[in-house]
Amino acid sequence: xxxxxxxxxxxxxxxxxxxxxxxxxxxxxxxxxxxxxxxxxxxxxxxxxxxxxxxxxxxxxxxxxxxxxxxxxxxxxxxxxxxxxxxxxxxxxxxxxxxxxxxxxxxxxxxxxxxxxxxxxxxxxxxxxxxxxxxxxxxx
Length: 140
Hints:
Elements: H1 11-14, E1 24-30, E2 36-42, H2 44-53, E3 57-60, E4 65-68, E5 77-84, E6 91-97, E7 113-116, E8 123-126, H3 134-137
Parallel strand pairs: 1-6
Antiparallel strand pairs: 1-2, 3-4, 5-6, 7-8
């Protein structure tokens, strides 16, 4: 069964300043906590599908295809609000994160590494716990 056709020519999509690859950066922020959970990319179809479904759909640059967040992991992002920045070239999704895990590493947020130290002797430290082993999330 194929997905229904999406109007990727809708006027509201033209306001977004897409990059030379037809993509726009997207920040997913959790409603309530305001935690920034992840950064991803969308093309016109991904944004249109996100609006249609009420769930985050991104463009996977590595796989060159649409990626409905949670399609494999079950960690769906329910979209509560969509905002466009002042330059119209970045999208902010205010989302409700199902199962509290947004990162493929099994953590709440993809931004779990914190810089500690100085410019000469600093390093990145993982400061947020793994909530679920990725081996248990993704089965191939």
